[in-house]
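We close this part of the discussion by returning to an individual protein. Part of our work consisted of pairing the sequence of a single chain with a tokenised description of its backbone. No coordinates are needed to read the tokens, only the vocabulary itself. The amino acid sequence and the backbone structure tokens for this protein are reproduced below:
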Amino acid sequence: MANIKNWSEFLKDVPTDALLSEIETRKIKQSDSVSESATDIMSQIDKSIEMFGSYSFDDKGPWEVMNINSIKKNLSTKSIKEIASILSEILDSYSNYERAFSVVACIIGEFDSLPEDEFDELLDSDERFEY
């Protein structure tokens, strides 16, 4: 997704307030402390909502509209501590907590094949993590 600095200019030809409202709920809270990995996953959330719509994302879940396997593969190169930090950043930074929580829970579920002690370490890294 292009980095659009002036959302009003981008939306000047859009006839509905509903779309403006939807764009606002999708915006990522940008911060210097958000890692590139977390930002990438949050962008993927936005792209899946853009492509399939919020109803499909919320009704079917992230596993149906996102490439969770690819996300897991990219995260698998990192330590458990780094993975936990990235997932926590998503929960802290994405503008729609319910959607962020859904994606994070889905990603954690993909890591259930880890050795039990590593999976427990991941799950215990943040009290908000669920499996």
Notes: The chain has a mean pLDDT of 85. Residues 35-123 form one domain. The radius of gyration is 16 Å.
